[in-house]
Amino acid sequence: MSLQIYNTLSKQKETFVPMNAPQVNIYICGPTVYDLLHIGNFRGPIFFNLVRNWLEESGYKVKFIQNYTDVDDKIINRANQENTTSEAVAEKYIHEHKKDYSALEIRKADHMPRVTEHMDDIIQIIQKIIESGHAYVAPDGEVLYSVRSFNGYGKLSHKNIDELQAGIRVEVSEKKKDPLDFTLWKPSKPGEPTWSSPWGPGRPGWHIECSAMASSLLGSTIDIHGGGIDLIFPHHENELAQSEGATHTTFVKYWVHWNFLNFGAHKMSKSLGNVKTARSFIEQYNAEILKYLMLRAHYRSLVDFSEEGIQDAIHGLARFYSAMSVAESIVLQNVSGQEVAEFKSLIDKTRSEIKSSLDDDFNTPKVFAALFEVVRFFNGKYKRGQKVTPQVAYMAKEFLLLMKSRGDLMSLFQHEPESFLKSLDNMLMIKKGIKREEIDALIAKRVEARNSKDFKTSDQLRDQLVSMGISIQDTPAGTYWEISK
Ligand SMILES: [Zn+2]
């Protein structure tokens, strides 16, 4: 089966057929650069990192663009607060955003255009919209989009125009012919950044920038346009009206929207005060946990970002890395492998399950479920400390290859397993309030008791460790412990 993508426009999964295969053009709405970005801002880039890798593996050539909004009220306010210019604010936070992006260890966009670099394109597209009769100029030089002139307004958010009108706050405005009309260009107030235009000095409204940048960099029709679900209305609805109003051709073939993060009971929003910057998350945990946490939920579902959700993700990741670290220790013994038919067919089945899951609207939870099956099988075949047979050597090598190659699609599972596992375990121990040395000491005492056949003490120590959330494995090569759930 070929790739199916859920299209917000049709509200169903559709077979993916790009405009000019093998080329695929993707545009996602990027951040407004006035502050450090919260983790929610990276759900899209983390997900689209996979989309892009998967399309490429499927034989497409991808051009991926994410913009920076560097003209905006929030930036102007920040500049006023800090007694500086909005250029300086934007410059600073673009720099910080690039640092976060690098720390995430995902591929960078092919191009990250800024609004200020595309002022001519913005003015041109507004002119086209006016010429097409979809916009008008108010006496003060504000250019407004005439929503009722565009047949089909509301088709992306699946609302009819009267419903939309009922939902908006009606501003008292002499300028607007209709309360739904929105700004394409407005005169700047004193002290605000200003560009000259046929309608007088001013600056663009928010929505027009994406229509202008997408068409100037990718052409009139783009294959995939992405954004958070909060952008469906009004931002994307307005982008659609602008672009199709200007070009009279389809703006976007596939509209792809990702869901929110869920912080306990509340969806993430700055006003609720539960903001966490990507930077603070990566410092406290690490980028891999962030990526895994985001991707283990389907992109159209909420991500559980509660403390519990985070701990659960660390546990899941630790299970993968624990098996990988065992496999790595086997591979390092250099025993030549011998094919195990049962394992080979499991790996083949897993690869094809991962393909069909990703082809089914990027179903990442199914990808991890398929990989967990292999972990379970592998763990059942070998315990640390056992003798490495040629069969075990074969399985370890194939398992690692699978994890690395499939993980690479999501920028996961590329760390050195042993040390990365240790860092995950340390986080879990901090949460449980226990220390590695403490456990090592109890294990040593228990080994001593076992050696002197004091099984009562040995059992007591085992119980104590279990109650601390530690599981123990006695093997011919010694005792190993792991953090259980
Ligand atoms: Zn946009």
Describe the structure.
With about 475 residues, this protein is an alpha/beta fold. It folds into three domains: about 5-260, Rossmann fold; about 305-425, Up-down Bundle (Four Helix Bundle (Hemerythrin (Met), subunit A)), CATH 1.20.120.640; about 435-485. About 50% of the residues lie in helices and about 15% in strands. The chain contains 16 helices and 15 strands. The strands form five sheets. It has a four-stranded parallel beta sheet, with helices on both faces. Helix 1 links the parallel strand 3 and strand 4. The longest helix is centred in the middle third of the chain and has 25 residues, at about 305-330. It is elongated and about 95 Å long.
Give the topology.
Blueprint: E1 4-7, E2 12-15, E3 23-28, H1 43-57, E4 61-66, H2 73-81, H3 86-104, H4 119-131, E5 135-137, E6 143-145, H5 161-167, E7 182-187, E8 202-204, H6 206-218, E9 222-228, H7 232-247, E10 252-258, E11 261-263, E12 266-267, H8 278-284, H9 287-295, E13 303-304, H10 307-331, H11 341-359, H12 364-381, H13 390-409, H14 417-432, H15 436-451, H16 455-467, E14 470-475, E15 478-483
Parallel strand pairs: 3-4, 3-9, 9-10, 11-13
Antiparallel strand pairs: 1-2, 5-6, 6-7, 7-8, 11-12, 14-15
Helix pairs in contact: 2-3, 4-6, 4-7, 6-7, 10-13, 10-14, 11-12, 11-13, 12-13, 15-16
Bound molecules: zinc ion.
